Amino acid sequence: MTELVIFDLDGTLLNTIDDLADSCNYILEKHGFTTHKTEKYYYFVGNGIRKLIERAAPSDCSAETLQAIFNDFMDYYQRHSADKTAPYEGIISTLEQLAAAGVKLAVASNKAQSAMEPLLTHYFPTVKWAAAFGQRDGVPVKPNPQIVFDILKTSGVEKEAAIYIGDTGTDMQTAANAGLFKIGAAWGFRTRKELAANGADIIISHPKELVKIVENSRNSAEIL
Questions:
Q1: Could you tell me the pTM of the whole model?
Q2: Dist CA 164 CA 180 (whole Å)
Q3: Residues 196 and 184 sit within 8 Å (Cβ to Cβ)
Q4: Looking only at Cα atoms, what is the longest distance across the chain?
Q5: In 3D, which of 84, 75, 88, 82 has the Cα closest to residue 114?
Q6: Which helix (H) or strand (E) holds 28?
Q7: Which pLDDT score, from 0 to 100, does residue 1 have?
Q8: Which domains are seen in the chain, by residue range?
Q9: Do the Cβ atoms of 72 and 27 come closer than 8 Å?
């Protein structure tokens, strides 16, 4: 029986790609480096901001330059993270239906905690999250499962009663490493092929499909 649904943030709950790309390109240009088309950022993101910077910046950048780009990006993105970002179609109603059914909701993101929290407050002001963790100092990023273990502990739910939904191979690996049922979100940043190759148990095309999956699990005491 599903008691908890853990969501990835970027590419699953929110379409953040334009603000991420615009912010990173602005900082790259500020430092005199080549910018990238937005489509490139679908594959730059997913493993935390530092990895985004490493992928977007020239390969011969020094550690000091990468740190400077990171610092500037964090400052700029904090002020522009909601310029174009929006929840995916159907996400709000899906969260509302799950909450009304008594399902706990959580977020597991590789976005910095300081950048994630304002977005959750801004776009989901009525949602009560059982836990919402982003990238934190001293905690390894996904696909390391520690973030999921922290959510399970905070929410008081056993892993057998939790499912994980995300849009990338990293998300599917995270869920697998934590021993959770894996749902691929095909509306996000990556492809169905990537989700399937990384072990998605189910791939869905619209958030509303998640409500049916959870309802079935609660009616039959199993996910399928």
A1: 0.94
A2: 6
A3: yes
A4: 58
A5: 75
A6: helix 17-30
A7: 86
A8: 4-15+85-220 (3.40.50.1000), 17-80 (1.10.150)
A9: yes
DSSP 7: E
If DSSP codes are grouped into helix, strand and coil, which group holds residue 155? helix
Q: At 157, which amino acid appears? A: V
**Token pair 């969260």 in the structure block, residue:** 95
Single-letter amino acid, residue 166 = G
Q: Is 179 left (phi over 0), alpha (psi -120 to 50) or beta?
A: left
Classify residue 141 by its DSSP letter: P
Which residues are bridge partners to 187 per DSSP?
A: none
pLDDT tens digits, 155-197: 999 999 999 999 999 999 999 999 999 999 999 999 999 999 9
Dihedral sign computed on CA atoms, order 139, 112, 56, 165: positive
Beta-carbon contacts of residue 23 (< 8 Å; ≥ 6 apart): 73, 76, 77, 80, 81
- Check residue 217 and give its pLDDT: 84
Span 35-81, pLDDT tens digits:
999 999 999 999 999 999 999 999 999 999 999 999 999 999 999 99
